[in-house]
Structure formats: structure tokens, C-alpha cells
Amino acid sequence: AIEAWFMDNTNEDKRLPHRPNPDELVPLDHLAELGVLYWQLNPKDYENDEELRKIRETRGYNYMDLLDICPERLDNYEEKLKIFYTEHIHADEEIRYCLEGSGYFDIRDKDDRWIRIWIKAGDLIILPAGIYHRFTLDTSNYVKLMRLFIGEPVWTAYNRPQEDHPARKDYTKSLTEKV
Ligand code: KMT
Ligand code: NI
């Protein structure tokens, strides 16, 4: 299962947990309030998983590919990791299913605090369009991710600030409507 916590503000290596002592854990229903959805599935069965099939069908995720994040299997590895860790939004949802390894998705909460979400094999998360986020490997230095999308994938990242981007405006509005 995923774990999430408010990050500490030290300048240590991004791949370290940045987990304060004492813990400031973030419950999953708090993530739901921010529009972040989560499922736990069987990563060994991803080719035949009925639950995954249903999620894809219900949400229209007809596009799928696999991404191995390690120097041997990802072109321009260092450059891509830099891009992943630069705070950004997308015009669409970001859907990632961790099949092997682990990593951190950092998202901004309503008060602009970083929440670090630790995903491991079996965790599928959906970040809503317009949420500020970034990604880093953890100290295991490896993750295999499935990427899902509705239709032709668009991975364009819009780096912060993006307050005038339609997806950002819609997202901010959706947060105030939930209160
Ligand atoms: C992105 O947009 O690709 C990210 O936020 C990185 C996470 S998955 C490689
Ligand atoms: Ni992204």
C-alpha cells in the first residue's frame, strides 16, 4: 500500500525519504480530497488482471506502455530524471501503475505543502490534471511503471508557474467546490 507524508524541508538528496521525525503522515482520504486516486493491484498479474481491465474500461484508458527507469533502459536517463523532478502540471490525468521497484510522487496540497507519496509494486495512482507534482526514484534506484492514457498520449509537462493554464484553473476550482 502507498504511504504518504508531509516532506521535511532539508536539502538532502531527493532520493532520501525526507520523512520528518515525528512522522506527519497523510491519510489516503486526504489524498482523495486533492483528487488523487489510488488502487492496490497484483503487479505479477498485470497482463491478465481483471481489476485492472475494469479500471481501464471504466475510465477509458485504451493506451498503455511500460517505462523502465534505469540508466540501461531509459534514453537520456539523467536528463529525464531532471525533467521528472521539476515541478509541473499536465493538461490530463497522470496515471502510473508501479509493477516493480518503487519511487516518490510529490504533490502539492491546498496550502502548497509538499506531500510525498511512496509507491511500490502493486500501487496504481492517478494524479488529476492541473495538480502540481514531480517524481523521483528512491534509494532503490529502480522502478518499472505502466503508463495509461485516454487516446493518443500527451506527456507535455508545463512547469510552474501555470496559474493561467486551463487545467490549473479547473483543478483549483474543483478544490474550492469540494469545501
Ligand atoms: C511525468 O509527467 O512523467 C512525471 O510526472 C514523472 C512521473 S512517471 C515517469
Ligand atoms: Ni507529470
Would you mind describing this structure in some detail?
21% of the residues lie in helices and 32% in strands. The chain contains 4 helices and 10 strands; from the N terminus they run βαβαβαβββββββα. The mean pLDDT is 97. By secondary structure, the chain is of the alpha+beta class. The radius of gyration is 16 Å and the shape is globular. Strands 1, 2, 3, 5, 6, 7, 8 and 9 form an 8-stranded antiparallel beta sheet that branches. A hairpin with a 5-residue loop joins β5 and β6. It has one domain: Sandwich (Jelly Rolls), CATH 2.60.120.10. The longest helix has 13 residues. It binds 4-(methylsulfanyl)-2-oxobutanoic acid and nickel (II) ion (NI). 4-(methylsulfanyl)-2-oxobutanoic acid (KMT) binds next to β5 and β8. Its EC number is 1.13.11.54, 1.13.11.53. It is an enzyme of class 1 (oxidoreductase). Pathway: Amino-acid biosynthesis; L-methionine biosynthesis via salvage pathway; L-methionine from S-methyl-5-thio-alpha-D-ribose 1-phosphate: step 5/6. Belongs to the acireductone dioxygenase (ARD) family. It is found in: Cell membrane; Cytoplasm; Nucleus.
The low-pLDDT segments are none
CATH third-level topology: Jelly Rolls
Strand and helix order = EHEHEHEEEEEEEH
Helix content: 10-25%
Number of separate domains: 1
Structure ligands: 4-(methylsulfanyl)-2-oxobutanoic acid, nickel (II) ion
Name the CATH architecture. Sandwich
Mean pLDDT: 97
Largest sheet: 8 strands, antiparallel
Work out the number of β strands: 10
Helix vs. strand class = alpha+beta
DSSP helix count?
4
| Strand proportion | 25-35%
CATH class bucket? Mainly Beta
Oligomer state equals single chain
Work out the radius of gyration: 16 Å
Tertiary shape: globular
